[in-house]
Known about the structure:
The protein is of the alpha+beta class. The chain is 35% helix and 20% strand. It contains seven helices and ten strands. The protein has helices at 47-63, 86-95, 100-108, 138-149, 158-174, 180-184, 213-221; strands spanning 18-23, 36-42, 69-75, 112-113, 116-117, 125-128, 130-132, 177-179, 192-196, 202-207. Strand 2 (36-42), helix 1 and strand 3 form a beta-alpha-beta unit. Helix 4 packs across helix 5 (158-174).
Amino acid sequence: xxxxxxxxxxxxxxxxxxxxxxxxxxxxxxxxxxxxxxxxxxxxxxxxxxxxxxxxxxxxxxxxxxxxxxxxxxxxxxxxxxxxxxxxxxxxxxxxxxxxxxxxxxxxxxxxxxxxxxxxxxxxxxxxxxxxxxxxxxxxxxxxxxxxxxxxxxxxxxxxxxxxxxxxxxxxxxxxxxxxxxxxxxxxxxxxxxxxxxxxxxxxxxxxxxxxxxxxxxxxxxx
Length: 223
């Protein structure tokens, strides 16, 4: 995986590192200047991605169907690699089949039809570039995660700092694979959403859902 600086808000967004486009025409950020790009980053084994993340972006997809706004899905994997894989993604896109916690949780909530999603994903969907993790990078990756997720880290007691670093280091030493785009954008989990403006600049990066995606797009269109 090539090394990229973590893109900050209001900086140029690097191209997504795609292994395969499972649905739709292949493209990338640098090829779509003049259009707003919304990327929904998800995992197949992620109930919240399908109960809240996708319904939110599908509403926006319908609302802005006549505007210069592109919607993409990016399936990634940072855990549960036996479920979050390309084969299960293809079954999801082709047949609406869900697996693991997604199957159990959505089924128990009555959100499936014959154990399949009750909706389809109408826009292009890609598979992140998943490569074997390099344990020798554990220290560097751990430092980046701590800086991102523990802004008050240096103010904590030394014993707390040590415990956090040991836990994060253990995670990266045992990590089997790395997801290129997920890591390059230093995302915290799934569902996550990226918003890139008409000039290719990253204008939004959110973890979770319910942050007002439609309003964010409206504001960008009004500029």
